[in-house]
Structures are given as structure tokens and as C-alpha cells.
Design goal:
With 265 residues, the protein is α+β, with helices and mostly antiparallel strands. The protein has 5 helices and 16 strands. A hairpin with an 8-residue loop joins strand 10 and strand 11. The structure holds zinc ion (ZN).
Length: 265
């Protein structure tokens, strides 16, 4: 794997047949008590490096997978539906030398607001008009259909199950807990795009810590432990929606803790 292009809002790595581009939708901050200890309580012992201006930094990222067979967008950012400073996916795509017309397929890691909202543009139309299929985990189809802004997308909705390949070389991997149908995507058997498995770097040092929006915190914790082990056993690279810059890197075990090492040029 090598980094072939880097801009303020994007970073592209080449695998064998496929290229993966991180697209930064923007950055926001969250209250410190979004991180929850094992008993579900907030954490009293956050270190200065965990905070920015007393809050938790939260980047929001999406990933574009490009190859001969087409162009798959994994997650779509927050659009204008959530915090100010998000919704820059279009600018990130342009910086990466692509554009909304180029996206043939969309797959969501899950149906939370910062992952699905970019499917629809500011005028309520399809943000990716050539994306004929939008893959959503079977467990979350109902949640997706219940979102009024997603009505224009419904004719393109496709159920997604573990093992499905939305694009040749990309396989869906169950990663439930943060949401019931939360999915990771393994690209060319070597880069795991793991959605919201980790929301803050503290969860590498203390993987038992959960996030306030984990729908089943215990299951999220079990899934994180299992996938961390699998990533290390298989030697996979990792990418995530809320990982520190640039959102792609390598996981390392450090005793009972873990560390994230970002890719560099
Ligand atoms: Zn998220």
C-alpha cells in the first residue's frame, strides 16, 4: 500500500487493484461525557491530549473505493443535517480528483445522521445521481425508510448482509453494537474500513470505553475487542469514520492497550 495523493480534505492510498480515498466531511467537537466507562458513567480521567478546548475532537470521514469495476462510496457524511463545519464531502471529492457523478454505488456502515445525510443534497435531490444502488444492512432498512429526507433514495435501496460484495474486492463484515446492523468493509483482503468501531483515540488505550451513541454498549465493546484481535492476526490496515488524521493507518498491540499509527507518505 502506498499513499499516492494527499490534500487538505483527502488522502488516497493504492492497494493492488483498488484505490481507497479518505474524504474528510469536516470536524466537530463533542462533550467529554460522550465517552463512557464500563459502568456507563462518564470518564473523570481524560488526559489533556484527549481534549481540544475542553471537548472531544470528532472528525467525520467517508471513503471512496475506486477500481476497474466502478466507484463505491462508503458513507456520505453529515450534509447540513448535523453540526456546523460538516458537509464538506463535495469539496473533498473535488480535491481528490473525483465528483458526485463518478459515484456508481453507495454503501453505508450504518444509518446514523453523520453517515447517511450526504445522500441527499441541499435541495432534497439525489447527491449521487448515478449511484444506482445504495446498500444498507438488512437490520437497518426500517430505520433508513423512516427518515423522511431519504424518500428520493428509497427506489435505489439494496439490503446488505455479511459476506456481500457491493463492489468486486470489497466484502461486508458484521460489526454490530454501535448500531444493530453496523457493517465494516474489507477491501482486497487487506484494509478494513470499520465505520464507527472507534470514536476517539482514548478507545485504543482503553478499548473497554464506549460512546454515548452506542446502541448496545456491551456488544460494541465485544465487537471492538474481536475485530482488534482479527485485524492484528490478519495484518490488516484499518480505516474509520472518526479516526484521527488521516483516518487510515495501522493498529498495534501494546500490552492490554492498542495504538493507532497513521499512514504517512
Ligand atoms: Zn459516526
Amino acid at each position: 500500500m502506498r499513499v499516492v495523493r494527499e490534500t487538505a480534505l483527502s488522502l488516497t492510498v493504492e492497494l493492488q487493484e483498488l484505490a481507497v480515498t479518505m474524504l474528510l466531511d469536516g470536524e466537530t467537537v463533542m462533550p467529554p461525557d460522550c465517552l463512557r466507562g464500563p459502568e456507563g458513567t462518564g470518564l473523570a480521567d481524560l488526559a489533556p491530549q484527549d481534549l481540544a478546548g475542553g471537548k472531544l475532537p470528532l472528525p467525520v470521514r467517508a471513503f471512496l473505493v475506486r477500481g476497474q469495476a466502478g466507484c463505491l462510496l462508503i458513507d456520505t457524511g453529515a450534509g447540513r443535517a448535523w453540526h456546523k463545519g460538516l458537509g464538506q464531502l463535495g469539496a473533498a471529492l473535488a480535491e481528490a480528483g473525483s465528483g458526485p457523478q463518478e459515484v456508481d454505488l453507495v454503501a453505508l456502515t450504518h444509518t446514523h445522521i453523520d453517515h447517511l445525510s450526504g445522500l441527499v443534497d441541499d435541495d432534497g435531490g439525489l447527491a449521487f445521481p448515478n449511484a444506482e444502488r445504495v446498500f444498507v444492512a438488512t437490520e437497518e432498512l426500517m430505520a433508513f425508510r423512516a427518515e423522511p429526507r431519504m424518500i428520493p433514495v428509497l427506489p435505489r435501496l439494496m439490503p446488505l448482509e455479511q459476506g456481500d460484495g457491493p463492489l468486486p474486492g470489497v466484502v461486508a463484515v458484521n460489526a454490530p453494537g454501535h448500531s444493530p446492523g453496523h457493517m465494516a468493509f474489507l477491501v482486497e483482503g487487506r484494509l478494513l474500513i470499520w465505520g464507527d468501531l472507534v470514536h476517539h483515540p482514548l478507545q485504543f488505550r482503553r478499548p473497554e470505553v464506549t460512546w454515548t451513541f452506542d446502541e448496545d454498549p456491551q456488544e460494541a465493546r465485544t465487537t471492538r475487542a474481536g475485530l482488534f484481535d482479527r485485524v492484528l492476526a490478519e495484518g490488516w490496515l484499518v480505516a474509520g469514520a472518526h479516526l484521527p488524521h488521516p483516518g487510515i493507518g495501522r493498529l498495534e498491540r501494546q500490552g492490554a492497550a492498542f495504538a493507532f499509527h497513521p499512514v504517512t507518505r
